[in-house]
Amino acid sequence: MGAVNQLTVSLLSRMEALVVPLQDRATMWDLSATFPADDIEDLRAAGLLQAIVPAHLGGLGLGTEPDGALGALALLRLLGRANLALGRLVEAHINALRLVFRLADPALQQRVAQDAKDGKLVGLWVTDPPGDGLRISADGMLNGHKQFCSGAGHIDAAVVTALDEAGGARLVYVPIGTGLTASPLTGGLSGMRAATTGQVAFDSAAGTVFGKPDDYLAEPDFSCGAWRTSAVTLGGLEALSQQLRSQLVSRHRHGDPHQQARVGQAMIATETARLWMAEAAVQAESEPNDIPAAISYVGQARLAVERACLEVMELSQRSLGVAAFLRSNPVERICRDLSTYLRQPAADMVLTEAAIFGMENIPR
Ligand SMILES: Cc1cc2nc3c(=O)[nH]c(=O)nc-3n(C[C@H](O)[C@H](O)[C@H](O)COP(=O)(O)OP(=O)(O)OC[C@H]3O[C@@H](n4cnc5c(N)ncnc54)[C@H](O)[C@@H]3O)c2cc1C
């Protein structure tokens, strides 16, 4: 796995320059639960949506090729630092494009590469509501529903899963158009409001099927892909840790030994999460020979980052007091966004499977 190349370095420096402006707008998007269209436009202009395309199709391969792993990690951390909800939208874009570039035929890959180079934002909608999930008929029409759809009503295309008549989960690339109706979740999520996570009804919508039945569940990608969510949450954790320190200093409360002890614990937790993620990104993206070992490692990394986030949220709220709950304080939004975004599938199973792997592979 090579070092980050020069084109990626300059993309990351453009992204780094955007972090503060994006942080400044994050509260506004959150308060009104608005899709961050201006932010997405800035990312487009910086070439970020296009950079996910593999190098041989004209991108930088960030998140879609082994050599793009470290660049993708840096990018997702920066996005998480800027605004977790924006990070979630781009994370989904990477996940969706990765599926296309690994599983689709050359014609669809070319088409989706062109869409991404034109600046289109793609989502990944794979969560079915109980009872009326998405189905695909023999003539290729999509009917049914998806829930927890980030970017619903705003993004340009989505990769979805749909059950075929034989019960296989098919992947479908769906340009957003006729036959799709997006609506908000009843009551909405309390955090990640700017990710505009809604529900979508499909009524004879058309798309392009790719891959084989159940390819979406193929390992190691299915489990190891979790590292990208954790990378965004790591960025949020870093922003929270920065806020904790700077707010204590600006309120002249940093000389107190109790506050110093909490800051020390927060710094250790943040660095622990960073170290886990640096290794998890490499293990997940390097086409591992030992697939169970990689899945176990990434699962542990996911849970270690989750634990670090929960710990620093508690430390920050204890240190800053009720100020951490003012809607105008970025700490309030970051904690609310992290609390929501950390709820990812099957946490218990990830832990116990990692433990079983560890017990079945005890070094002699
Ligand atoms: C901000 C945000 C944006 C999202 N955007 C999208 C999107 O764009 N597209 C999309 O498809 N999805 C999206 N999702 C949904 C996401 O993919 C997951 O479906 C969701 O986050 C699962 O979280 P959960 O905590 O409910 O998981 P669960 O797996 O239901 O876990 C909840 C608890 O139940 C336990 N548990 C799990 N299974 C069982 C079981 N069988 N028996 C007993 N206990 C069990 C778990 O260990 C855990 O303790 C989004 C979610 C969030 C938070």
As a percent range, the share of helical residues equals: 40-55%
Order of helices and strands: HHHHHEEEEEEEEHHHHHH
Q: State the end-to-end distance.
A: 29 Å
Taken together, the total number of domains comes to: 3
Tell me what the structure shows.
- With 364 residues, the protein is α+β, with helices and mostly antiparallel strands.
- The protein has three domains: 6-121, Butyryl-Coa Dehydrogenase, subunit A, domain 1; 123-216, Butyryl-CoA Dehydrogenase, subunit A, domain 2; 219-360, Butyryl-CoA Dehydrogenase, subunit A, domain 3 (Up-down Bundle).
- 54% of the residues lie in helices and 13% in strands.
- The protein contains eleven helices and eight strands.
- It has helices at residues 6-32, 37-45, 69-82, 84-103, 106-117, 221-224, 226-250, 257-285, 291-320, 330-341, 347-360; strands at 122-125, 135-136, 141-149, 157-163, 169-175, 180-184, 198-206, 208-210.
- The strands form two sheets. A four-stranded mixed β-sheet has the order 1-4-5-8. The protein has a four-stranded antiparallel β-sheet with strand order 2-3-7-6, with no helix packed on it.
- A hairpin with a 4-residue loop joins strand 2 and strand 3.
- Helix 1 packs parallel to helix 3 and helix 4 (84-103) packs antiparallel against helix 7.
- The longest helix has 30 residues, at 291-320.
- The radius of gyration is 20 Å and the shape is globular.
- Bound molecules: flavin-adenine dinucleotide (FAD).
- Residues 88, 92, 123-127, 148-150, 189, 192, 195, 197, 340-341, 343-348 line the site of flavin-adenine dinucleotide.
- Flavin-adenine dinucleotide binds at residues 88, 92, 123-127, 148-150, 189, 192, 195, 197, 340-341, 343-348.
